[in-house]
Specification:
Layout (H helix, E strand, L loop, with lengths): L1 H14 L11 H5 L10 H9 L3 H5 L3 H4 L5 H5 L6 H16 L9 H4 L6 H11 L2
Helix pairs in contact: 1-7, 3-7
Length: 129
């Protein structure tokens, strides 16, 4: 239980976001260009962090379907920053693996014909550091 709580707190720390400010209006999800590809929508992602259901987040396809375009951040009336929470969850997964990079052989399994090019560019920017 404490590990889950630590993961939730770590996501908040990495993102700098406060999910408790969310009023569940759904504007973040309504503006998300990857909405149809996500199993956990941006507004739901915020609730998962609040409820410390981190295991479901790190195993969801939404973690890698998010384009990191931050349209959700621009649209949020309460500055909750769901895109930054999603990005922080990605970073948490990478940190737990003890690596800063995806292994090249792992990349094809994460891609399909529907993967937006913007996602790939964002991932290369994020993971090549």
């Amino acid at each position: 239980m404490s590990n889950v709580k630590n993961s939730s707190e770590k996501i908040k720390e990495i993102s700098g976001a406060n999910p408790l400010k969310c009023m569940k209006c759904g504007k973040c999800s309504a503006t998300c260009p990857a909405f149809n590809e996500m199993d956990i929508k941006p507004h739901q992602f915020v609730s998962y962090v609040i409820n410390e259901d981190i295991e479901a987040l790190v195993n969801s396809k939404s973690l890698y379907r998010c384009l990191s375009c931050f349209a959700c951040i621009e649209r949020c009336p309460r500055d909750v920053q769901p895109g930054k929470l999603i990005d922080a969850a990605r970073q948490l997964v990478v940190r737990k693996r003890g690596q800063n990079y995806l292994v090249p052989d792992e990349i094809p399994a994460l891609l399909d014909e529907e993967t937006p090019q913007q996602l790939l560019v964002s991932a290369f920017r994020r993971y090549r550091r």
